[in-house]
Design a protein that fits this description.
Helix content is about 55%, strand content about 5%. By secondary structure, the protein is an all-alpha fold. A two-stranded parallel ribbon has the order 1-2. It is globular. The chain starts with 7 loop residues before the first helix and ends in a 10-residue tail after the last helix.
């Protein structure tokens, strides 16, 4: 909607507006009042096991490593260190039964952290709020384009 370099006020407002619109449409669909033809066929199977992990401690470590290595000033070495930590925690909890809100949040935080780190590693330049100390210049010839990351976990 507003492109790259998402800032809090715009994206928060967009989330509210589009979340509200989606909610209204879902309500119409469920009441059979929507003009859109909707066919839903969904299934989900993900074997989960109970694990004894300290989700809060992992979350705190994740927040620390992201702040230190994926914050305002980034470089390849720090990004790889952060990615290694995120991957280690991901494999620890990926098949864990989520029993609390914190467990679900941790899974989502790990996914989002991984996507941000992978994108920052891929973009070998500095642009807008993305600053790489190992690639200080903006490079329009190679990098004036969008990068789309898809879930790979």
């Amino acid at each position: 909607i507003h492109g790259a370099n998402r800032l809090a006020s715009n994206s928060l407002l967009e989330g509210l507006v589009f979340g509200h619109r989606i909610g209204e449409e879902v309500d119409r669909v469920l009441k059979g009042q929507s003009g859109n033809e909707v066919s839903i066929s969904a299934s989900y199977s993900c074997p989960r096991v109970r694990k004894s992990v300290d989700s809060r401690a992992i979350r705190a470590e994740l927040q620390r490593i992201m702040t230190e290595n994926v914050g305002i000033i980034r470089n390849r070495e720090g990004l790889l260190k952060a990615l290694n930590t995120v991957n280690r925690y991901h494999y620890l909890v990926k098949d864990m039964v989520n029993e609390t809100i914190e467990d679900f949040e941790l899974q989502n935080m790990l996914l989002l952290s991984r996507l941000v780190i992978e994108s920052a590693l891929e973009r070998e330049e500095s642009r807008g709020a993305h600053y790489r100390s190992d690639f200080e210049k903006t490079d329009d010839l190679r990098w004036k384009r969008n990068i789309i990351r898809k879930r790979s976990m």
